Amino acid sequence: MAEMIFMLIVILGAPGAFVVFAARSAPDDRHGPVLWHYLVLGTLLTVIGLVVMGLTAWYTHEDVHYDDFGSAMTFLAAMLGGTLFLLGLGPFIPWLLGVLGRHAVRLPPPIRLAVRDVAGNRTRTAPAIATALISTALAIALMIISFATTAQKRVKYHPEARSGALLVREFSTNEAAAVHAAIRHELPGVPIVQSYREHGPAEIELEIPNVELPFRDGMAPDTYVGDQALLRYLTGDPATPYDENTAVVVTTDESKVVTATLLIQHDSVGGRRPVSKTIPAIGVSPTEPDVQGLFIPAKVMRDLGYQLEQTALIVDPSSHRTSAAEQERIGRRLGDAAVTYVERGFQAPAGWIVFATVLIAIAFYGALIAPGRTAATSRSRRVLLRTGASTAALRLFSACRTGFSAACGTALGAVAGCSIGLLLAWPATTSSGWEDSTPRVAFDTPWLTISALVAGLPILTAAIAALAPTGTTTRSGATEKTSH
Predict the structure, then answer these.
(1) Measured CA distances, 436 to 63, 160, 213, 430 (Å)
(2) Radius of gyration of the chain (CA)
(3) At 480, is the pLDDT very low, low, confident or very high (cuts 50, 70, 90)?
(4) What would you measure as the largest C-alpha separation in the chain, in angstroms?
(5) By three-state DSSP, how is residue 273 classified?
(6) pTM of the model
(7) What are the distances in angstroms from CA 31 to CA 96, 99, 219?
(8) Which among 262, 265, 233 has a CA at the least distance from the CA of 247?
């Protein structure tokens, strides 16, 4: 999400220049062409932007580790390329309006006059259409990149506990009793599972013949120390056999487990003193595949002479699924004494939706104001009145003007936004973790949403324009009401 916000901040520096560029390149003359040097400059900027985005996409297309700084600079270069690409489209708005105005001859009169009216005053309409274009492009680009990064994060996500479990951790030994009491107060009668670790700077390595436990984020497989309640939380099965002298390997591996060897490195006065202990072990399957590791009964550790301290308090979802309100109450009661976490699975980030909504609203506003006010000075409107056009025809004329302006902005914006979004999706999904070997995954480009935006915005703005009052005009010295 931070990358998306950064992208938005960088590219949002271009809208002002883009709108000004579109306005400056629009000719004052109704039938005048766009000056060639504006088109050349726009073409140059667009090509440079596409080349930069294409190079960054090609440079980051491999599923390998990318240095943090290098990855950030590559993504920044891609965003600057997108900025240049958008900026270069400025002169093509008045150019396109001129082309469409000249080729509207065969259209029905209200539509033909509407197209020519929008194309005939490009200094007025080009800036507003440019606003709709760039807002639509940014919204669509943000949408595509968000879908790509969300799909990648979903694949890389590893639950920290069983679904629905409450974890309370990161508390000191002196605060353990108070933390336990706080949970009891908020969840009366709910069993609390305790997880331990050895007190002091000790490390546990394990060897389990024929079994390969998964590593998490490059770290050693999880080791759990506790009692029967912790084991049953890990397996999700109350019938799991428990023996205080037998380790339990919680794994999806179906290999037979007989023993587990613990190699404990413990700091002592004379240096690091390794302790090796081989104990009986059995293998059981977890309820959820992400909860795997080695369970060691607390008695085994105490028999080796280690003092244990609580590392986490757990509310087993089999006995109680903690709600968001309960988690909030427990968090308020604990304050900074501990950290609470409830495993709810992968939560797709939704902050980008706010930014996309704002951009779509700006695009809607730009499309709505692009034709300008339906004033008596409108040449096309006076032509309709001289031919005895009805109020319905005038409303159709207003709807066509606004819908045509919106269609120009959203169609061009969709092309630009899709180009930027699909190219920037590559550098946005690079891996910066040394141990992260997750390949890129395919993501669902929101074509339906993009199509709805491109088609819906012109229809909506046209409908609003058709329902608005058509105003008044003057003909042959008399003022005629065209709408009541």
Answers:
(1) 10, 17, 17, 10
(2) 33
(3) very low
(4) 110
(5) strand
(6) 0.80
(7) 13, 10, 70
(8) 262
